[in-house]
Amino acid sequence: MGDLAMCLDEEASRHFLQEIVNILLAYMCKLFKRSTKVLDFHHPHQLKEGLEGFTLELSDQPENLEQLLVDCRDTLKYGVKTGHPRFFNQLSSGLDIIGLAGEWLTSTANTNMFTYEISPVFILMEEVVLRKMMDMLGWSNEEGDGIFCPGGTVSNLYSVLLARYHFFPEVKSRGMSAIPRLAMFTSSHSHYSIQKSAAVLGIGTENVLLVKCDERGKMIPGELESSIASAKDRGLYPFYVSATAGTTVYGAFDPLNDIADICERHGLWIASSVTWNPHKMMGVPLQCATLLVRKKVSLNFECNQLCAEYLFQPDKHYDTSYDTGDKTIQCGRHVDVFKLWLMWKAKGMEGFESQINKCLENAEYLFDKLKNRTDFLLVFESKPEHSNVCFWYLPHSLRNLPPGCERDKKLHAVAPKIKAKMMEEGLTMIGYQPLGNKVNFFRCVFSNSATQREDVDFLLDEIVRLGHDL
Amino acid sequence: MGDLAMCLDEEASRHFLQEIVNILLAYMCKLFKRSTKVLDFHHPHQLKEGLEGFTLELSDQPENLEQLLVDCRDTLKYGVKTGHPRFFNQLSSGLDIIGLAGEWLTSTANTNMFTYEISPVFILMEEVVLRKMMDMLGWSNEEGDGIFCPGGTVSNLYSVLLARYHFFPEVKSRGMSAIPRLAMFTSSHSHYSIQKSAAVLGIGTENVLLVKCDERGKMIPGELESSIASAKDRGLYPFYVSATAGTTVYGAFDPLNDIADICERHGLWIASSVTWNPHKMMGVPLQCATLLVRKKVSLNFECNQLCAEYLFQPDKHYDTSYDTGDKTIQCGRHVDVFKLWLMWKAKGMEGFESQINKCLENAEYLFDKLKNRTDFLLVFESKPEHSNVCFWYLPHSLRNLPPGCERDKKLHAVAPKIKAKMMEEGLTMIGYQPLGNKVNFFRCVFSNSATQREDVDFLLDEIVRLGHDL
Ligand SMILES: Cc1ncc(COP(=O)(O)O)c(C=O)c1O
Ligand SMILES: Cc1ncc(COP(=O)(O)O)c(C=O)c1O
């Protein structure tokens, strides 16, 4: 093994890796103890100046192994413990042991998803896992294909790319100037990845028409209908509608069936592809995202294929339809499937189910608690449909103000102030944001099944403790 | 830790992870033994049918931990050992112990690069590493910014995206229909990622003009000049030139200075960005790729920023210019920097230098050997400029045929036949491809510094053994 790690012989390599593993195991033990802080906050300039000997700067001279181990410990020490049961910030959260084992194996195998030649097992696992997911969506064997992508945003980009190609295959060679001006539709509560896709693909963000939602954040089908009509009137070519099952902030579900009916009537792309992001609610370590396409397998290939001969030789001795790299917009592609495959083996459908139910129960528990409090205000009175719960905290000074502009102005400053103190103290973490005409509110989103009711209680107590006197 | 891994308590989790580590360490030991096969080939249908109890299929019932360990062992068994010193196929190859340790830590930290809030250390490491790389390019502190991307292909896509935005900022909101028809230029030997970018971005592959190369695969500056002129004549707007330092197949270096001069004269984008792919020659585990941009930091932000309020709150208590996620076309982003940072600490510049020199020496050794053989034919008589060496093997039956069509036709079939046998036997692996008017030839590309001269000797002996009687 010697020359591999430079100057490291086999025994030293084994020893070094075992030391790293000991550090990681010790980290995990601490992580799951509730007495451990979620983070040890420092401002960028503090971390850059170097803390207690932890320096980020790179020198030209090599460091010794002992120092590297210290660096690793420090990296974890000053990082944020996203796997902590009291981390309620944006996903991903949690740390699944099986998924982690899968990731360690993946990096040891260190291969590349472009061809069956060098990734026979992982390429087939991709097929098996995607097929399983498509079965769950109720798609038959003849229809359907998919791909693992580096994030759900890229999955969404693929879906727009495929839709564009489906309607205008000439776009691949001739570009956007050869086709009509396109219009796409998504709800005003949708994730920004739809707009990013429009910017990247050359469609333009102003050609993404944001359809109005109801109070609960669900797209209003009638609004979609009239938005399509008015786009047509303005000479645009509507081709794509994105609907969300669990919006980012509210966790709202768009009325998929109604929207699909409208799309069918107008011949638009929806129900034709699904972005399914296992690194969110399923708790798979980042990155793990998929796009599933309800079309003939050939579509992905036709849209993206360039047949580079140095990689995709047609005269190989095996079935080269498994050289799936040419379906993608990448070349080298990280193996993201294995950890999910291993987790699926370990948990089965029932394991994932109970894990997700745990998150939904926590959301309901939080909702029920908030409903009965006068110092908190729910953004909605209705039960959460998903694992998101949105709420304001009313410090003492605001509690007697009537709802309205003046209170809103003050309320807007509350969440950022609490969040700042919360990060400085480091015992828990939760995100906040404004949305539409709603001033800054907290959004608690559960995706870590290690979180217990006591952690939810703790979160509220912390908010009160930090915000009471604001 | 119990509920985290479902049904796994702390002791069981620790035990399971240690068992996995033992499997991985045992795999590495075997990997570096030259007596171990590089692969144990099976056709897709064989693997899908299940081999000796290794089944890829997922059931709804959970498997027990013992079975999971067997699954992990089998996954490695039927995979390709890309870290083996006799794996000469496409990159990535090698298995760097420090990089691997970095990846294990990264997956344990399981965080997301979108904000400083949840990735303080990694975000700053990204800045430090990118700055170091820009220093090496000779860029001053005022100019220059960069980003880690999921692969060099995505880096290249970013570069085209930024160039388009630089010339036509209105494209972001208004799309391609608001701007002139664009033309981009790259050499006929360049990587297909440039064409993929054009397809994705809506520029169209036919607007990527492939500039002629000399025999050695280098772009001919005069040809670029006339290609630009003819694009202008055809009403296209030339905006972007890609040049390659180390082409995929030949390892050729385009004449960067001459090309940059031409671009400057015509006001085109080059030298403005560099794709640098540490998961190739630097031996960093996949994925690790960067784009470096010689422009004001703000460009990346302006081009891609959408200011999603749920993520990038402007009223946070720290310097939010470190919330670099809004520079990217992703949302969630895997931490790719840490393994590179750790390797850099461990090796210093000198470590990387000697590692790469080792690869270049191997290429020269192979070239020198081939020069003196009559059963092999070099694609070039001149010394390799990089770690790629391209050659044909002439089986006995072809050795007395004169060069020309008839021999070429037969020669074209030789490499695939040898490769097929080679994979079936599994003792080594090398890639082949045709290029331009050259029929199928082998390309040996060195990027694993564990490879020794004896491995190079072995490769040639194997080719002779498998191909002699063809
Ligand atoms: C010259 C060149 N550029 C870009 C790439 C793409 O890199 P990646 O596989 O990381 O996407 C390659 C890959 O082989 C390449 O050879
Ligand atoms: C509804 C929705 N879609 C897509 C995404 C993007 O996923 P990723 O972060 O994997 O790119 C998110 C991320 O939060 C999301 O909430």
From TrEMBL, chains A, B:
The keyword Lyase applies. It comes from the Eukaryota. Keywords: Decarboxylase, Lyase, Pyridoxal phosphate. One of its GO terms (cellular component) is cytoplasm. One of its GO terms (biological process) is gamma-aminobutyric acid biosynthetic process. The keyword Lyase applies. The modification N6-(pyridoxal phosphate)lysine is found at K280. Its cofactor is pyridoxal 5'-phosphate. InterPro entries: PyrdxlP-dep_de-COase, PyrdxlP-dep_Trfase, PyrdxlP-dep_Trfase_major, Pyridoxal-P_BS. GO terms for molecular function: glutamate decarboxylase activity; pyridoxal phosphate binding. Belongs to the group II decarboxylase family. Homodimer. This is Glutamate decarboxylase. It comes from Denticeps clupeoides (denticle herring).
